[in-house]
């Protein structure tokens, strides 16, 4: 009974909020809608930090998938990670807006000067990762393992052209 009362109370609050009714039963004026093209200033350094963090998360997912492949584990459990890679790949071009080529970026200037090439590499990565996600969902171990290699190639192919050389190795 208590849960039902709380649900009714919650529904009443939602209804009141959506209809604009206030405690006196009067209708509140409609809230203005922000313009569709409103811009939000973003610090280029924050963009770089965000994409670096996302790259590290994708690398962790990728490494986890490889561990499952190497151990002969159930690849169906990797569907979420593979889908996450595919979504990241689709979002990747937007993470490199003009003006975000600031330290400590590892991106080369040609990300912005060869935008069509960069976008094409990201699209290939997204397509390969999408296939990986479908194979994981299907539980196809051999297909998943083979596609993991293809995703690695498309990911690395972008790094070869658009990323500063790794001086750690």
Furnish the topology, listing elements before pairings.
Layout: H1 2-19, H2 44-71, H3 79-91, H4 110-113, H5 115-138, H6 141-162
Brief digest:
By secondary structure, this protein is mainly alpha-helical. Helix content is 64%, strand content 0%. The protein has helices at 2-19, 44-71, 79-91, 110-113, 115-138, 141-162.
Can you describe what's shown?
Helix content is 64%, strand content 0%. The longest helix is centred in the middle third of the chain and has 28 residues, at 44-71. Helix 5 (115-138) packs antiparallel against helix 6 (141-162). By secondary structure, it is mainly α. It has helices spanning 2-19, 44-71, 79-91, 110-113, 115-138, 141-162. The chain is built from 6 helices and no strands. The termini are far apart.
């Amino acid at each position: 009974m208590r849960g039902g009362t709380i649900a009714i109370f919650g529904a009443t609050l939602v209804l009141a909020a959506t209809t604009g009714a206030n405690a006196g039963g009067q209708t509140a004026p409609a809230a203005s809608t922000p313009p569709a093209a409103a811009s939000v200033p973003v610090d280029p350094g924050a963009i770089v930090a965000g994409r670096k963090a996302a790259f590290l998360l994708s690398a962790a997912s990728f490494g986890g998938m490889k561990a499952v492949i190497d151990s002969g584990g159930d690849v169906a459990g990797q569907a979420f990670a593979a889908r996450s890679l595919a979504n990241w790949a689709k979002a990747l071009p937007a993470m490199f807006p003009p003006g975000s080529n600031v330290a400590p970026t590892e991106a080369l200037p040609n990300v912005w000067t060869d935008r069509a090439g960069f976008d094409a590499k990201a699209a290939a990565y997204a397509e390969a990762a999408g296939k990986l996600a479908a194979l994981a969902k299907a539980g196809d171990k051999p297909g998943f393992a083979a596609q993991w290699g293809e995703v690695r190639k498309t990911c690395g192919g972008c790094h070869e052209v658009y990323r500063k050389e790794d001086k750690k190795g």
